[in-house]
Amino acid sequence: MPTADGAHSRRLSSDDVYHQLRTLILENAIAPGERVNIDALARQLGVSQTPIREAVRRLEGDHLLHKVPGKGYQTTPLLDLDSLRQLFEFRLVVDLWAVRAVAVNRLGNPSGWLHEEIERFTRAIVGVPDIRQHLLEHDTRFHGLILGALGNDVVKNAYDQTHCHFHAFRLYSPDTNGALTIEEHARLAHAIEACDPDEAETAMREHLTKAFYRFARAFDDTGNIQLRFPQSPRIF
Ligand SMILES: [Zn+2]
Description:
Layout: H1 14-26, E1 35-36, H2 38-45, H3 49-61, E2 65-68, E3 72-75, H4 81-103, H5 111-124, H6 132-150, H7 153-162, H8 164-171, H9 179-193, H10 197-215
Antiparallel strand pairs: 1-3, 2-3
Helix pairs in contact: 1-3, 2-3, 4-6, 4-10, 5-6, 5-9, 9-10
Protein backbone atom coordinates (compact mmCIF):
# COMPACT_ATOMS: atom_id res chain seq x y z
CA MET A 1 0.00 0.00 0.00
CA PRO A 2 1.48 3.37 -0.94
CA THR A 3 1.81 6.31 1.44
CA ALA A 4 0.18 9.63 0.64
CA ASP A 5 3.41 11.59 0.39
CA GLY A 6 6.00 8.84 0.06
CA ALA A 7 7.58 9.82 3.39
CA HIS A 8 8.60 6.95 5.63
CA SER A 9 11.45 8.37 7.66
CA ARG A 10 9.63 11.14 9.55
CA ARG A 11 8.08 10.22 12.89
CA LEU A 12 4.35 10.43 12.38
CA SER A 13 1.89 11.72 14.98
CA SER A 14 -1.59 10.27 15.31
CA ASP A 15 -2.88 13.30 13.40
CA ASP A 16 -0.35 12.72 10.58
CA VAL A 17 -1.41 9.09 10.35
CA TYR A 18 -5.07 10.11 10.19
CA HIS A 19 -4.44 12.64 7.38
CA GLN A 20 -2.23 10.25 5.47
CA LEU A 21 -4.76 7.41 5.62
CA ARG A 22 -7.62 9.76 4.82
CA THR A 23 -5.84 11.01 1.70
CA LEU A 24 -5.18 7.45 0.56
CA ILE A 25 -8.88 6.59 0.93
CA LEU A 26 -10.16 9.82 -0.65
CA GLU A 27 -7.88 9.37 -3.64
CA ASN A 28 -8.80 5.69 -3.90
CA ALA A 29 -5.19 4.56 -3.37
CA ILE A 30 -6.89 2.29 -0.84
CA ALA A 31 -9.78 1.02 -2.93
CA PRO A 32 -13.43 1.03 -1.84
CA GLY A 33 -14.16 -2.21 0.03
CA GLU A 34 -10.46 -2.93 0.66
CA ARG A 35 -9.45 -4.37 4.02
CA VAL A 36 -7.28 -2.14 6.20
CA ASN A 37 -4.70 -4.16 8.12
CA ILE A 38 -3.63 -2.35 11.28
CA ASP A 39 -0.46 -4.46 11.79
CA ALA A 40 0.69 -3.93 8.22
CA LEU A 41 -0.01 -0.20 8.35
CA ALA A 42 1.94 0.17 11.61
CA ARG A 43 4.94 -1.56 10.04
CA GLN A 44 4.67 0.41 6.82
CA LEU A 45 4.42 3.79 8.51
CA GLY A 46 6.99 2.93 11.20
CA VAL A 47 4.64 3.70 14.10
CA SER A 48 3.08 1.69 16.90
CA GLN A 49 -0.45 0.37 16.58
CA THR A 50 -1.83 3.09 18.90
CA PRO A 51 -1.82 6.02 16.40
CA ILE A 52 -3.13 3.68 13.69
CA ARG A 53 -6.02 2.58 15.91
CA GLU A 54 -6.80 6.21 16.78
CA ALA A 55 -6.75 7.16 13.08
CA VAL A 56 -8.94 4.18 12.19
CA ARG A 57 -11.52 5.19 14.81
CA ARG A 58 -11.60 8.75 13.42
CA LEU A 59 -12.00 7.42 9.88
CA GLU A 60 -14.85 5.21 11.08
CA GLY A 61 -16.48 8.41 12.44
CA ASP A 62 -15.98 9.98 8.99
CA HIS A 63 -17.80 6.99 7.43
CA LEU A 64 -14.71 6.25 5.36
CA LEU A 65 -14.05 2.96 7.17
CA HIS A 66 -16.43 0.50 8.71
CA LYS A 67 -15.97 -2.57 10.85
CA VAL A 68 -16.95 -5.89 9.33
CA PRO A 69 -17.54 -8.69 11.88
CA GLY A 70 -14.67 -11.19 11.77
CA LYS A 71 -12.81 -9.20 9.11
CA GLY A 72 -11.69 -6.01 10.80
CA TYR A 73 -11.91 -2.65 9.05
CA GLN A 74 -12.75 -2.05 5.39
CA THR A 75 -13.13 1.13 3.37
CA THR A 76 -16.76 2.04 2.76
CA PRO A 77 -18.21 1.83 -0.78
CA LEU A 78 -18.35 4.87 -3.05
CA LEU A 79 -21.59 6.77 -3.40
CA ASP A 80 -23.74 5.80 -6.36
CA LEU A 81 -25.33 8.51 -8.49
CA ASP A 82 -28.66 8.40 -6.67
CA SER A 83 -26.93 8.78 -3.29
CA LEU A 84 -25.00 11.76 -4.67
CA ARG A 85 -28.32 13.32 -5.74
CA GLN A 86 -29.81 12.75 -2.29
CA LEU A 87 -26.79 14.34 -0.63
CA PHE A 88 -27.02 17.45 -2.81
CA GLU A 89 -30.78 17.74 -2.33
CA PHE A 90 -30.13 17.73 1.42
CA ARG A 91 -27.50 20.43 0.91
CA LEU A 92 -29.89 22.49 -1.20
CA VAL A 93 -32.37 22.53 1.68
CA VAL A 94 -29.83 23.32 4.38
CA ASP A 95 -27.35 25.55 2.52
CA LEU A 96 -30.04 27.69 0.88
CA TRP A 97 -31.77 28.29 4.19
CA ALA A 98 -28.44 28.92 5.92
CA VAL A 99 -27.18 31.41 3.36
CA ARG A 100 -30.40 33.45 3.48
CA ALA A 101 -30.32 33.53 7.28
CA VAL A 102 -26.65 34.51 7.36
CA ALA A 103 -27.05 37.18 4.66
CA VAL A 104 -29.63 39.09 6.69
CA ASN A 105 -27.50 39.06 9.84
CA ARG A 106 -25.56 42.32 9.84
CA LEU A 107 -23.99 41.75 13.27
CA GLY A 108 -22.72 38.18 12.83
CA ASN A 109 -22.00 38.49 9.09
CA PRO A 110 -19.21 36.02 8.18
CA SER A 111 -18.19 37.65 4.87
CA GLY A 112 -14.79 38.79 6.23
CA TRP A 113 -13.89 35.21 7.15
CA LEU A 114 -15.22 33.96 3.80
CA HIS A 115 -13.07 36.40 1.82
CA GLU A 116 -10.07 35.45 3.99
CA GLU A 117 -10.70 31.75 3.39
CA ILE A 118 -10.84 32.30 -0.40
CA GLU A 119 -7.58 34.29 -0.29
CA ARG A 120 -5.88 31.60 1.82
CA PHE A 121 -6.95 28.86 -0.62
CA THR A 122 -5.88 30.93 -3.64
CA ARG A 123 -2.39 31.40 -2.12
CA ALA A 124 -2.11 27.77 -0.99
CA ILE A 125 -2.61 26.28 -4.46
CA VAL A 126 -0.03 28.39 -6.30
CA GLY A 127 2.35 25.97 -8.04
CA VAL A 128 0.63 22.90 -6.55
CA PRO A 129 0.09 20.31 -9.32
CA ASP A 130 -2.63 18.32 -7.56
CA ILE A 131 -4.97 20.55 -5.53
CA ARG A 132 -7.55 17.88 -4.62
CA GLN A 133 -6.94 17.88 -0.87
CA HIS A 134 -6.66 21.68 -0.73
CA LEU A 135 -9.95 21.99 -2.60
CA LEU A 136 -11.73 19.54 -0.32
CA GLU A 137 -10.49 21.30 2.81
CA HIS A 138 -11.27 24.76 1.45
CA ASP A 139 -14.81 23.81 0.41
CA THR A 140 -15.41 22.13 3.78
CA ARG A 141 -14.18 25.22 5.68
CA PHE A 142 -16.04 27.70 3.44
CA HIS A 143 -19.46 26.07 3.87
CA GLY A 144 -18.64 25.34 7.53
CA LEU A 145 -18.15 29.09 8.11
CA ILE A 146 -21.60 29.86 6.70
CA LEU A 147 -23.26 27.11 8.75
CA GLY A 148 -21.25 28.06 11.83
CA ALA A 149 -22.52 31.65 11.55
CA LEU A 150 -26.10 30.34 11.79
CA GLY A 151 -25.69 29.52 15.47
CA ASN A 152 -27.76 26.33 15.15
CA ASP A 153 -25.86 23.28 16.41
CA VAL A 154 -28.67 20.90 15.44
CA VAL A 155 -28.45 21.93 11.79
CA LYS A 156 -24.63 22.06 11.82
CA ASN A 157 -24.38 18.57 13.37
CA ALA A 158 -26.90 17.09 10.91
CA TYR A 159 -24.89 18.58 8.04
CA ASP A 160 -21.55 17.37 9.44
CA GLN A 161 -22.96 13.87 9.91
CA THR A 162 -23.45 13.52 6.16
CA HIS A 163 -19.66 13.93 5.59
CA CYS A 164 -20.79 15.31 2.25
CA HIS A 165 -17.40 16.70 1.24
CA PHE A 166 -15.48 13.48 1.85
CA HIS A 167 -17.96 11.37 -0.07
CA ALA A 168 -18.37 13.68 -3.04
CA PHE A 169 -14.63 14.30 -3.42
CA ARG A 170 -13.97 10.56 -3.24
CA LEU A 171 -15.88 10.18 -6.50
CA TYR A 172 -14.15 12.71 -8.65
CA SER A 173 -11.98 15.80 -8.54
CA PRO A 174 -14.31 18.27 -10.18
CA ASP A 175 -12.32 21.49 -10.52
CA THR A 176 -8.74 20.79 -11.43
CA ASN A 177 -7.34 24.30 -10.90
CA GLY A 178 -9.86 25.64 -8.37
CA ALA A 179 -10.91 28.56 -10.60
CA LEU A 180 -14.61 27.64 -10.78
CA THR A 181 -14.86 27.17 -7.03
CA ILE A 182 -13.07 30.46 -6.32
CA GLU A 183 -15.42 32.33 -8.68
CA GLU A 184 -18.58 30.77 -7.22
CA HIS A 185 -17.44 31.21 -3.62
CA ALA A 186 -16.45 34.85 -4.26
CA ARG A 187 -19.96 35.55 -5.59
CA LEU A 188 -21.43 34.03 -2.42
CA ALA A 189 -19.09 36.00 -0.13
CA HIS A 190 -19.97 39.27 -1.90
CA ALA A 191 -23.73 38.59 -1.67
CA ILE A 192 -23.44 37.85 2.06
CA GLU A 193 -21.27 40.95 2.55
CA ALA A 194 -23.93 43.04 0.78
CA CYS A 195 -26.64 41.51 3.04
CA ASP A 196 -28.55 40.50 -0.10
CA PRO A 197 -30.42 37.27 0.74
CA ASP A 198 -31.99 36.88 -2.73
CA GLU A 199 -28.63 37.09 -4.51
CA ALA A 200 -27.01 34.87 -1.82
CA GLU A 201 -29.69 32.21 -2.32
CA THR A 202 -29.36 32.36 -6.12
CA ALA A 203 -25.56 32.15 -5.88
CA MET A 204 -25.77 29.15 -3.54
CA ARG A 205 -28.34 27.36 -5.71
CA GLU A 206 -26.17 27.83 -8.80
CA HIS A 207 -22.99 26.82 -6.96
CA LEU A 208 -24.50 23.59 -5.60
CA THR A 209 -26.15 22.72 -8.92
CA LYS A 210 -22.92 23.21 -10.84
CA ALA A 211 -20.94 21.30 -8.18
CA PHE A 212 -23.43 18.40 -8.35
CA TYR A 213 -23.07 18.08 -12.12
CA ARG A 214 -19.29 18.37 -11.85
CA PHE A 215 -19.19 15.47 -9.35
CA ALA A 216 -21.70 13.51 -11.44
CA ARG A 217 -19.10 13.34 -14.21
CA ALA A 218 -17.63 10.44 -12.20
CA PHE A 219 -20.45 8.32 -13.66
CA ASP A 220 -20.45 7.16 -17.26
CA ASP A 221 -24.21 7.33 -17.55
CA THR A 222 -25.97 10.10 -15.66
CA GLY A 223 -29.25 9.49 -17.53
CA ASN A 224 -31.69 12.31 -16.91
CA ILE A 225 -30.89 12.74 -13.25
CA GLN A 226 -32.06 16.10 -11.95
CA LEU A 227 -31.87 17.84 -8.61
CA ARG A 228 -35.17 18.79 -7.01
CA PHE A 229 -35.00 22.29 -5.56
CA PRO A 230 -36.67 23.52 -2.42
CA GLN A 231 -39.36 25.98 -3.48
CA SER A 232 -41.05 28.96 -1.93
CA PRO A 233 -42.76 29.84 0.37
CA ARG A 234 -39.66 31.35 1.84
CA ILE A 235 -39.11 31.36 5.55
CA PHE A 236 -37.59 34.85 5.65
ZN1 LIG B 1 -18.52 25.31 -2.24
